[in-house]
């Protein structure tokens, strides 16, 4: 592999389906994942809902560190390593075993979050983030990624109404605007995998759009 080049996705040695949701803070990912999981279960599929950072016992301990607002001195590179450490553990403990059992795995955030948050908003070199993503995922790539696109002012107002903000939510509006733009740029490079949904709509309208994206993927 050429230094800094993107590792090709390997042919999967599992029979499950791997779906991810991405978007800024408060875009409604958790809400939509619950609805989608219900729909898959109604259709007789076995579903695993999980999230990053976290998603397994050890990875959840790393999550606590990452979202702790007392960790304000955490430097971007150390932050990236912690997200990638959580990811490697999560894949090993939760995602791959479920995919190998043929389950539908729906994950709230995955490697795209690192490209956007650490690679663009934190201004780390994108090639470094890609390299660590490649190491952590060993080529595991979602079959489809739903981007819930939302003006960060709306998303932050939604999470603000929930109470205390975590370390990432406390970042300036310009940080969250950079996140939104970076996601939209990523979509341009991965048009087949991404499905963009306007997340300013009602919960039911967003769910209907997500189901269109599932249908398109299945066809
Ligand atoms: N991160 C993560 C990185 O920097 N790098 C990485 O590699 C990874 C993996 C994770 C943080 O870590 C960063 C990104 C994040 O900053 P988190 O707590 O998991 O932190 O944060 P989020 O993933 O952003 O989760 P949130 O819970 O904040 O947002 P969701 O899941 O997108 O939104 P949800 O569904 O919880 O909804 C938020 C609120 O809005 C309401 C809900 O009821 C809820 O109150 N809502 C709506 N209101 C109006 N209309 C709708 N359509 C609504 N849908 C939901």
How would you explain this protein's 3D organization?
The protein has 219 residues and is α/β, with parallel strands linked by helices. The protein has one domain (17-218): 3-Layer(aba) Sandwich (Rossmann fold), CATH 3.40.50. The protein is 53% helix and 13% strand. α3 runs parallel beside α5, α4 runs antiparallel to α5 (126-137) and α4 (111-121) packs across α7 (173-189). The two termini are 33 Å apart. The model is unreliable at 1-6 (pLDDT under 50). The structure holds P1-(5'-adenosyl)P5-(5'-thymidyl)pentaphosphate. P1-(5'-adenosyl)P5-(5'-thymidyl)pentaphosphate is lined by residues 23, 25-31, 51-53, 67, 83, 108-109, 113-114, 117-118, 158-159, 162, 166, 168, 202-203, 206.
Query: Strand count, sense and closure of the main sheet?
Result: 5 strands, parallel
**What is the chain-wise order of helices and strands?**
EHEHHEHHEHHEH
Please identify the structural class as seen in this structure: alpha/beta
Do you know the CATH architecture? 3-Layer(aba) Sandwich
CATH topology: Rossmann fold
Q: What is the average of the pLDDT values?
A: 94
User: How much helical structure, as a percent, in the residues?
Assistant: 40-55%
């Amino acid at each position: 592999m050429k230094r800094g080049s993107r590792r090709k996705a390997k042919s999967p040695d599992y029979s499950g389906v791997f779906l991810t949701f991405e978007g800024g803070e408060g875009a409604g990912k958790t809400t939509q994942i619950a609805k989608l999981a219900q729909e898959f279960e109604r259709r007789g599929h076995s579903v695993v809902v999980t999230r990053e950072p976290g998603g397994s016992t050890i990875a959840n301990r790393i999550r606590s560190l990452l979202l702790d607002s007392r960790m304000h001195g955490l430097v971007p590179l150390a932050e990236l390593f912690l997200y990638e450490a959580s990811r490697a553990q999560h894949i090993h403990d939760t995602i791959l075993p479920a995919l190998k059992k043929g389950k539908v795995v729906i994950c709230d955030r995955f490697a795209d979050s690192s490209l956007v948050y650490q690679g663009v908003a934190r201004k780390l070199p994108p090639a470094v983030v890609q390299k660590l993503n490649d190491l952590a995922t060993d080529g595991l790539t979602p079959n489809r990624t739903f981007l819930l696109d939302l003006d960060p002012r709306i998303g932050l107002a939604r999470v603000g109404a929930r109470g205390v903000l975590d370390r990432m939510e406390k970042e300036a509006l310009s940080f969250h605007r950079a996140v939104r733009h970076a996601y939209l740029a990523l979509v341009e490079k991965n048009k087949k995998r991404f499905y963009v949904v306007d997340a300013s709509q009602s919960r039911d309208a967003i769910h209907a759009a997500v189901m269109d994206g599932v249908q398109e993927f299945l066809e």
